[in-house]
Each structure stands twice: as C-alpha cells, then as structure tokens.
Amino acid sequence: MLLRSKFFLVLMPLAAVILSLFIGKYQADAATIVSLLLSKLNIGPGGDFSVNLETAIFQVRLPRILMALLVGMSLSVSGAVFQGVFRNPLVSDHILGVSNGASLGAAAAILWGASIAGVQLAAFISGMLAVGLTYSVSRIYKTTSTLTLVLSGIIVGGFFSALVSLLKSIADPLDKMPAIVFWLMGSFAKISSVDLKFAVPIMVSAVFVLWLVRWRLNILAVGEEDAKSLGMNTEVFRFGLVVLCTLATSSAVAVSGVIGWVGLVVPHVARILVGPDHKDLIPLSISLGGTYMVLMDDLARSLTTAEVSIGILTAIIGAPFFAYLLRKGTSWS
Amino acid sequence: MKLEVRGGSFSYTKGHPVFEDISLELEDQQFLCLLGQNGCGKTTLLKCLAGMMPLSSGKVIINGKHLDSMTRRETALAIGYVPQDQETAFPFTVQQMVLMGRAPSLNFLASPSSRDMTIAEEAMERVGILRLKDQRYTELSGGEKQLVLLGRILAQRPNIWLLDEPTSHLDFKNQTIILRLIRDLVNEGRSVIMTTHYPNHAFAYPTHVALMHDGKILSIGSPEDVLLESNLSQAYGIDICLYTARRKDSDKLVTFCAPVEE
Q1: I want to staple A114 with a disulfide (CB 3.0 to 4.6 A). Which of A57, A107, A118, B226 is the partner?
Q2: What is the per-residue pLDDT for A120?
Q3: pTM value?
Q4: In chain B, where are the structural domains located?
Q5: Looking at chain B, which residue has its C-alpha nearest residue A277?
C-alpha cells in the first residue's frame, strides 16, 4: 500500500520542502530559483545569481523549512507515542501539559536572558516536570483512565500557563514581554542556523529512536499486564519513551514556540489511514507531520503581507478538523 | 517444565494477607483448575505466579530457577498469562494481536519477520480464528477475544499457561469450545493453571483441582479426591450436593454439583 511504502513516505515531505523553497517574501521567478538550485547541485548551466537571492534561499528559506519539517516530525511522532504509552488516543503534548510546561521554562529563560541552549534546557526540565505532575495527579484514583489523565492535564496545564502569564506581566513591556508573547504564539520566522545547531541533533535523535522502537510500542499500547506478560519491562520502557517525547517536544517549543494541535491531529489522521499498528503508524506520523508543518509554514509566510503565527494557523485548522474526526470516530474504538 | 510455589503469601497491607502459605506444584501436561469464592485470592495468586507482582514471602520456582532472579523476558518465554478483563484502547487486528506473542522472542528493535508471521498464522489456525485475522479485536465477541488471547500465548510458545477465568462472560457453547481447546493443548504438552467460577468445569476437563478458601488452599489433588460435597460446601459457604447422572442412551456417568434448594 502506498502509505506504507518507504519511497512515498520520503517523497512526500521532500516534495513539500522543494515546493516551499519557491514561496516567500523575496521576489524571484521560479526559473531563476530552479537554475540556482541546479547549479548548487552542480548539474545546471550555472550563471550569475544575486547575493540577495542566494541569501534568501539558503540562509533564510532553507533553514526555516528544515526547522518546520523537524518540528512537525517531532510533535507528530511524540503525539503518536504519547497516545500509545498512555493508551489513550486523546492525549497529546498539549493535553499532558508538556507544551505549557516547556513554555514556562523557555519564557523564564528568555526573561533571564539565557542563551538558546539555556532556553532549551529550561524548556526540557519544566516540560518533564509538567508531564510527571500530570501523570501523578491522574494516579490519584490508581488508574490512568482517559478522563483522569485529560483532567489532570488540564489542571497542570492551567497551572503552568498561569505561571507563564505571571512571567509575562513582570517582563519588561517594551522588550522582553513582546518577545515572549510572539514566541509563545509559535513561529518559524526567526529561525537562525544557531538554533539549528542545538535543536537539530536532539530532535533528529529522538525521532530516530522512536522510529526504531516502533513495533515494540504496540506491546505497550495494548495493555499494562499484556506488556508485562509479553516480557516487557514496562516501567523502564515507558519512562524512556516519555523522556524522548518530552525532549523532542520541548526542543520544538524552545525553537518555535507553542504550535498546538499537530501532535493530536496528525497521529489521528495517520491512524485512520493505516490503523493502530505502530510499525506503520510511526513512519506515517513522522512523514505526514513534517509535510503538514512545512505547508502550514508556507501559509504562515504568504497568507498576508505580515507574518501570521503558525500556532494560530494550526489551531484554526486543527481544532475544527479534530471535531470532524471525532464525528467520524473511526480512529479508535 | 515445572512450576512450584513454596510458602507463598501476598498482602497489600501488612496483617491482611490476600493469600497465605500456599504451596503447589505443576508438572508437564497437568491442567490445574483453581476454584473458590470471589475474593479468595485466586486471581492474586495467578498474578504472583505470572510475575505481575512479587510475593510478600515465599518463592516461585520455574525449573529450579527463582522467578525473582529471572528477567521479564525469560519469564515470558516460560510463562504465558492471560488476565481476566483484557481491554485495549486501540483497534488492533486479530493478526496484530497474535503477532504480539512473538515479542519476547524478538530483538528489542526488531519487527516480526515472515517466520513470525507463519508462527502467528499457525497459532490462529490452531485455535480456529484464522478467518478473523483482519478483523478488529475490539469488535469481536467475548468468546472470539478469548480465542485470540489463547492464540497469542500459542505464538508466544511458553510451556506454562496461566489463565484467569478464560470462560467468564462466555455462553455455554463458547465455554465448552475454550475448555476443550485448553484440554487438547495440555495433552499436546503444555501445563495450565486456570481459575474459574464454575465448579462443574472442574469435573470434566482438568487433571487436578485446587479449592481455595480465605487465602488458603483447602484441598488439592485429582478432581475425584477434591470435589467432595464437604469441600465444596466449605469453600463456597453454601450447602452443595453432588449428583451422578447417566446419559439416556449410554452407560456413561457424569458427576456435577449444585446448591441444595429447600
């Protein structure tokens, strides 16, 4: 089947990346961009290209597109894995409080004036703290039912987002406050190669490891006692997976702010397309998530003359789409 | 393969044991049926034997090896366990469910190979669910679900099977199908411990019966020795009588029990 073929799963995001190189504020006709790209690959006739064009394509657009690709992959695969780990198709980074948690750490680090590495570290620590809290609050009734997990996620997320608001209100209104506010809305507009240096290795390795263990995820997703009786050290495996997902998500939050709904909607679409087997679900979530984010970012930078925050777009599209999926209800039993 | 418990006790809170000082042995091709009231400790005992929870005191020994010293994976290659109410949030297909039985035999990063597929197909064939292979597990009937879980253990290939009430929620026909299948699999070389709420199942199918009462084993041995009116009455706390009946057109006698009605 097409959606399970490796070729297609690589081709889809690749096509989105190439298409996106042609979209942006800098005016250049497609033919020029094509010959620039070909000459960079040493297959074109070459020619004189303006420095501005080269900068626009390779220093501005390409890093931004690659970042969108990676963030989309990270958020989507984390969403799919979180859903499997907590055996609950309704959880996502957002519902578990990870994004709000990571936001608090990152906002505090921005306020402090920390480096990008510091922002990432702070985002990771408070993201872990939030997901840990959510899980332990949900264990009050000694079960992790859908309802208690979602409820405790709302509690923890609400608490962390209040703390983020507190930070906003004490931040310098001329300088730090707008920085935090715009960053929270989610955007790839200010991506630089410095960001890539820290975030890329973390996100790439997290996504890769999650891809490696894809079939094993089934065993954990099917049930706690099932997994134990099938020889799995569930506590260790689950903890490792939560750490990886939180690493991927908080790195994404640290570079691009909060981009909601992707981690919920993409795995659902993937599950409708290929079913719950993580062997197919994880690769498709990665591929779809990357493609979706790249295309959304194209919209973000071309929809209006000013940038639209991508977090706003993914919510405007994601929320009603998720309502539509709920109506169909084919994603879970 | 031999499973042994020696002096096994378990308690959630100190001073309130769920079961206490339990010793039993299970040898090759034995089919032990565990009977007793709700809350007598059957399910908890089975969980401890399966390594889901550690005993509070005493030990479980598998082929001379302590269960505590075995990894989960080693345990899974020796013991298969089916919990009472298996529910899953995701609509896996029957084939995917049965394939999961291959997990302990596979490398951590591996996906099932074509050989594993064959093993799973054989298992599905053996328990008679090959035709359901592409159906969603979540949409099956109770009896079919139970067959899928038995198929999964079959693909897992342990020698000791621990089944917690495999016949609960099943109709008359499906109970019989499951019990016959378990009996046949025991004759093919497995050892099984099964809990049940139907004492009449214990007359016909198992090789051994244990009656539990209040966290202790009241009586253990062959069905004829254990399933006495006095034992059953004590275990269930109601008066129970044994009846022997002859089938209309044959000399075959069957024994069963029923509560005494005034």
Answers
A1: A118
A2: 83
A3: 0.91
A4: 3-237
A5: B92
